[in-house]
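Reopening: Cytidylate kinase still failing for me.
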Amino acid sequence: MKKIAVAIDGPAGAGKSTVAKALAKRLGYVYLDTGSMYRALTCELLHRGVPVDREEKVCSVVQNLTVEVKNDQEELIVMVDDRDVSAHIRRPEVSACVSQVAAYACVRQHLVKEQQRLAENGGIVMDGRDIGTVVLPHAELKVFLTASVEERARRRLVQWNENHPDEPQTMAQIVQNIQERDRKDTERAISPLRQAEDAILLDTTSLTREETIDTLTAMVKKVTA
Ligand code: CDP
Ligand code: CDP
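Support: Ran it again with your exact input. Result attached.
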């Protein structure tokens, strides 16, 4: 069967990473979580004490950094140069400023080039904010995944509290971060979050994870039939 490129975009907590990863596994495709790349650079900048509100400082550091994403069994491993930042990329302090870092042209150019290189041979499921519009404008299947803010925050809260029982976050903290990031990602000048004209809209508010994966699998089958 022909191997295609699948672009999945949408706001925070819509289920993109979870279902994109499962879909790639079902199809025997490569999976790339582009959000983890923006998070990894942000994490490294914070680690080095670079002021993330100073674009020229961010750009001078970022241009010399290499981000590598590996799917090791079920685990996502994200490296910046030789440092494994996987355990830190979802921390609240990274979530709080990743959208500011992701709005800089130098950051986007640096990462988009690498994302396009990884997709050269097709057979890839990539998720993010600008995959269908900028990174893979010729992807054979584009899906814009969304869900209500309340449902997206609820999912995020469950996900965080399961993995960090000693460090609970409140629903209010999560809602605030999601809304703030959605606003910055949608309003930024370069590659804002928006549904590509040829993308299929899929609202997952009342769908389970499995139902979403089945729906996407059926969409791929239709395109490759
Ligand atoms: O998983 P979650 O929805 O919380 O976010 P993510 O996919 O890990 O992405 C984190 C942030 O990176 C987003 O809020 C965007 O600011 C940025 N991002 C982007 O600008 N473009 C992408 N293709 C992917 C992520
Ligand atoms: O990548 P994105 O920010 O769009 O979302 P995610 O991290 O993949 O999904 C957030 C959480 O929602 C995960 O724990 C998923 O298992 C869950 N989820 C769900 O409950 N129902 C869905 N239809 C999709 C995801």
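The chain has one domain: 3-203. If you still see a failure, please send the error message rather than a screenshot.
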